[in-house]
Specification:
The chain is 30% helix and 15% strand. It is globular, with a radius of gyration of 18 Å. With 282 residues, it is α/β, with parallel strands linked by helices. The strands form two sheets. The protein has a six-stranded mixed β-sheet.
Amino acid sequence: MGKLVAISDLHVRYEENRDMVERLRPADDEDWLLVAGDVGELSTDIEWALTLLADRFARVVWVPGNHELWTPPDDPVQLKGEARYRWLVELCRRLGVVTPEDPYPVWEGEGGPAVIVPLFLLYDYSFRPPGTRGKREALEVAEEAGVICTDEFLLKPEPYPSADAWCAARVASTRARLEAELPEGLPTVLVNHYPLVREPTRVLRYPEFALWCGTEATDDWPKRFNAASVVYGHLHIHRLIHHDGVPHHEVSLGYPREWKAYQKDPGRLVPVLPAGKTAVGR
């Protein structure tokens, strides 16, 4: 019987990470792989990695990270914002990779059945530093602390006026879809690049970076949508926590300088079901 496993933040522009992805293989021919974003920045790198993984795993489920949504000046695909996201969705469909725009598949292997729910939600600057009121003041505090996300330069939210406006639209449309399409009685596995609750960001070395790490609008989603497990990345803090009784797996590989320093077994695929079965240490 196959296993449901996950990884994120592959960042294959780094040669060491690319080599690690080359070595990724399922333990069983029926294994499914959840990829929680940040495969890479360049369209060519993203296509290379997803093609390789789709050839090896029975099914691959992908959600975009912020890095996939960047428009680097040296990328042959110069689409921005929503148009870039839609290009990535079509790439995945050509490869047989499931995206947040596709029907939710049901996992029937070990720990199943469970509905796999890939999400694309972004962030809205609501994970603010204590005492700040509103986005502008929070960004000023972050800038004074020397913290600013590269998204502010390379992530173009077009046709939306801002990333938080894009986030609001995604949250509203996704919530409506979940309420309409999730089958009754089955648990879910919610897969998002960003944490769905703020709790995981409280251990950030630079707490101001939480501004770019999610939205308070999804705080009740794990309970509301019957999550047996939540999978996320982005923070590059590889661990398992339980929040309101639901296991939340941060499954990042991260940058070479990080996994070389902190991970005992870098590149390990994280088992997602049965829920909370395997703790993942930093």
